Amino acid sequence: MNQTINKYSKQIIIVNSIFILFWLTISIFPFIWTLWGSFKVKADFFSRADWTYALSGFNTLIETGATTTIKAYLESWTEGEFGRATMNTMIVTVSVVSISLFLGTLGAYALSRSTFKYTFYILIIALVFRAMPHITLVSGYLFPFFQLNIWGILPTTIIVLVAINQPFTLWLLYSFFKTVPKELDESALIDGCSYFQAFRYIIMPVMWPGVVTAGLFSMMLAYNDFTVTALLLNQHNYTMVPKINAYLGTVEYGGNYMWAVSSVVSATAPLFMIIWFFQRQLISGLTAGAVKG
Amino acid sequence: MKKLIISLLISFASTSVFAGSHSPCGVTSGSINILANEFTTYRIFMDEVKSCAGPDADFNVTHSVDHNKLQVAALSANPAEFSAKLVTNGSITPLMNDGLIRPLDDLVAKYGSNLNDNQKITIDGKIYAVAFMANAQHLWYRESILNDLGISVPSTYEEVIAAAEKIKAAGVMENPYAGAFKSGWNLGQEFVNMYLGHGGEFFKSGSAQPNVNNEKGVAALNVIKKLTELSNPDFLTQDTNAVKEEWESGNVALMHVWNSGAASLLDDEGDQNIKADTRLAPSPTVGGGDKPATTLWWDGIAIATNTSDENAEASFRALVGAASSTDLANNNPNATVWLIKGYTPGDTAGPVVDAASRGTTPYPSFPHMSLMHGALSTELVEFLQGNESAEKALADVEAAYIAKATEQGFL
Amino acid sequence: MPHRTFFWFILPTALAMILFIGLPIVSSFFQSLHIENEQVLMEVENCDPFGCTTNVRVDVEATEKIEAENPLGRFNGFGTYTDRNHLAFDEIREAWDNKTSIGEFKDTVLNLPFYKALLFTLTFCFAVTPPVIVLGFIVALSVNTLAKKLKGFIVFGTILPMIVTPLIGSLVLFWMIDSQGIIGASIQILFDDPNLSLKASSNLTWITLIIYGIWHNTPFAFVVFYAALQTVPQDPLEAAFIDGASRFERVRFIVIPHLYPVATFIMLICLMDNFRVFEPIIGFSAEGVAQSLSWMIYQDLRNENKMLFGSAGATSMLTILGIAFLLTPVLIRTWKEFKTER
């Protein structure tokens, strides 16, 4: 039966394939372009004379003697100290994801199991919190953080990112826990478990699809964040995105554009791999409940 | 001509008084933590600072594009996060406003024997900063293109416009002129240049009341408008970097950008034919004025008030060691125009020296200037797009400024 | 769940949010009600490498004294909210009194920074959100019909625009749409107009930003829709098939109603994110012609040497109010659902 429903006419298949191909081109093309361009020199990739230079490597050939060069990669990783930024990003991302999920699952579980009116208000307040522009929040942090001498270090940034990320995590996990049948943990409670035990032994084993999804969203936030990291970290602790921005330099003085381009590739590659690896879980996690929100 | 300029620079930078005999380098106690902008010349400078501090020093530096945003918060804390900050005549004012940087007279007396007198930035009789480089925007041109059309090097903006029109009419280039007109800080800076070139004053004397909506302001705007009509239609999105790209691609024959761009504009990357043809010229005057329509900038070092005397001394020693290092200057003669003693200016220093010797106005360091610059940054766009009159645009600038200055307690 | 247990469960997350989001909101609100103390100026002699001049500076001691008496600054009530750079009540009243036509009044109002920014923000919001939902839905349906082997790769390709930081994404695109860039040059050929520039005219810049917004946001809508499609119950679909319903009818009457709540969720997140639109404006250097509310805050806090906390606070509060207003219908729906669930 299922087979017949899912059988498609030829026209549909053709139209569909063309559409998907078109869509994929739009979404992937800029990345392929960047990847290709990162092996050229600036005069080619950012050519104001003729964009085909970026394909042919016209100036790259003149400057380096070959049509491709890995100079930008070598320099950004050695002279540009991109390795340390990568390390910092890893620390920040792993910490933000784990702390976010820990706080988020506890809170969201409570919200999904309580029937009192205040849960609704908490959710709404969380939503309002999400509406606050990040730049205002971060500017507000500067004075107290410097005063307390906690500016510039990774833990401060991590906890700020966790907090900023909480509203979305809460909402996502809340709607996920809603779909986990209440009877499961209620029976455990009747058996004499405490709520925490119920959470630990009954809910935790079944919550992974939702957690993976929420975790992926937190990861993207932590990995890509610019507003918070650029202002709350010192040079030594820069993560990848502020580092790339630093390569671009300032308005007055120009910078290492090709370092930035090659670093964009270096920074995006692991993210792509993680998403590639987890995309099935992302979908299944959303399928399992978050989308019923 | 070049000789004259060089001798001018040296005379203008060499009267120094013997003041002390302690050698600044080789710091062993106290920690050094510096906040600075992010660009190549500063990196070169910081390498020297680090080597001056020596291997035993506790040395840290943060290069941040957001240094201006961080500085007040960072230096307000007690103890301050940073013991020193690299400042310019633009960014020193907020620190002065809140008393966040300390007078340096005693440290200069102790370690500054190799400084030129003009490196010492004195405010109200006290030294608050030590400058190490100077910068200005000036004219650049393509020699062969001007020669082919029989155009002499323009010395006024009227001539620049005429020259650009001639190049356009001859069909050599579609948009022969370029300037950093990107809406925001750059556009505000272009107006500052042009308005000062017309002899304008930003504030009514002795007060914080704005004073740009006048004939000089309108004249300045009209010159900018004419220049933008000869520029790439994307001019509102082009900052200095974008202008340099245009230049290196051979789309432009005349431009007005920073002297510190020389190193990258004349290096061995990109089209060498264009580079060989690139010439630097003094900044033009405008509207019959006698001062070039540009502003002079200095970059210097300042030490935080809220840091221990030990850290202040350590930081000052390392920084001033670099700021008086003749080797640093002469090993990198084209990185910028150094103010350091014994510096033999490179080939590209001429226009800055010229601007200084002709009495060009330094960028105004009024406490409320950044508010004015901010208002200029946003309110002039509609005029350049042809959506409103010059008078309306300047009235908008004043209104926006007044609202901000009131909030900040200046009015 | 009893109050006590609930409290302990929610405490860590609540604490994080209150400390790092709640408090800053409250403090921004207080700051927006105050303006700085009067700054005492004095004339001094300044010497720099370019010579000596008479200049004014802030008299630090005198100003500190005032500051010590009045650390919060001067209370200004909602003065900052109504000044020229925000709601501009006086200017609007004046424009209304002096108007010769409605068009002129409209122009005057839209020339004021706040209303200019509001107009762009709302335009962006409402031009991006619906296409994102529709496009996301269509792509999801389309991908869902593919063979299983292909799906993995295509899902991955489709969500790429979402996982790259907007700063970098828009920077790359900005170079591509330059009149000499690959997209810009292709468009010139397409429209046979060698002077066409996407960056030069304000209309084209707006359209570019909106298209970027759609490009960046569609993957999110796609992912959520695609996940939700997996939960569409098969029985009604089969029944409809047997009854002879066409593919379109099945989508129209079974799939769409099932996805309706999901669409609201996407709309909520999209509206919220788009109302705060900011990075693309910086990435595309579009400050000149397109200013959003978030950009105004950025301008107050970052583009000047002095941070205008009061002004930024006021704009932030107005932004929150704006989002709350936009979300009211969604909130009311959620409230009803919440009550029925209990």
The residue ranges of chain A in which pLDDT falls below 50 over 5 or more consecutive positions are none
The shape of chain C, in one word, is globular
Radius of gyration of chain A (CA) equals 24 Å
Average pLDDT of chain A works out at 83
Outline:
Chain A is mainly alpha-helical and 293 residues long. Chain A is built from 16 helices and no strands.
How would you explain this protein's 3D organization?
The complex is a heterotrimer of chains A (293), B (411) and C (342). Chain A has helices at 2-5, 10-37, 42-45, 53-56, 58-64, 71-78, 82-113, 118-131, 134-148, 154-179, 182-190, 195-206, 208-224, 227-232, 240-248, 257-288. By secondary structure, chain A is mainly alpha-helical. Chain A folds into 2 domains: 2-69, no CATH class; 76-292, MetI-like fold (Orthogonal Bundle), CATH 1.10.3720.10. Chain B folds into 2 domains: 2-135 and 296-357, 3-Layer(aba) Sandwich (D-Maltodextrin-Binding Protein, domain 2), CATH 3.40.190; 136-281, D-Maltodextrin-Binding Protein, domain 2 (3-Layer(aba) Sandwich). Chain B is of the alpha/beta class. In chain B, strands 1, 2, 3, 4, 5, 6, 7, 8, 9 and 10 form a 10-stranded mixed sheet that branches. In chain B, 43% of the residues lie in helices and 15% in strands. A two-stranded antiparallel sheet of chain C has the order 1-4. A two-stranded antiparallel sheet of chain C has the order 2-3. In chain C, helix 6 runs parallel beside helix 10 (202-229) and helix 10 (202-229) crosses helix 12. The longest helix of chain C is centred in the C-terminal third of the chain and has 33 residues, at 309-341. Chain C starts with a helix and ends with a helix. The model of chain C has no long low-confidence stretch (mean pLDDT 85).
